[in-house]
Amino acid sequence: MLGAAGAIEALAVILAIRDGVVPPTINLKTLDPEIDPKLNLTPNTAQKREIRTGLSNTFGFGGHNTSVIFRKYED
Fold first, then answer.
1. Contact 67, 57 (CB under 8 A)
2. CB neighbours of 20 closer than 8 A, spacing ≥ 6?
3. CB neighbours of residue 47 within 10 Å
4. 5-71 has which fold?
5. How far apart are the first and last CA of the chain?
6. Higher pLDDT, 56 or 60
7. How confident is the model at residue 69 (pLDDT cuts 50, 70, 90)?
8. What residues form DSSP beta bridges with 14?
9. What one-character-per-residue DSSP string does 20-51 give?
10. Structure pTM?
11. What is the pLDDT of residues 17-54, one digit of tens each?
């Protein structure tokens, strides 16, 4: 999976956009008080929302770095 992690992450972004579900930030127990409380970190439980754009960042061994932005196409 080391070589395919970026593809799996990109697929997760595409499915989140398609299904309108934001994956949770797992194991988030305590919020940093310096973080703006209006920022929704999606703690521990997925949330249903309209998603139009998603970003996939992949940072691999040996300096292979890629960022891809996916956008929902609307007619």
1. yes
2. 48, 49, 50, 51
3. 12
4. Peroxisomal Thiolase; Chain A, domain 1 (3.40.47)
5. 36
6. 56
7. very high
8. none
9. TEEPPBTT--S--TTS-TTS---BSS-EE---
10. 0.79
11. 999 999 998 998 888 999 998 998 898 999 999 999 99
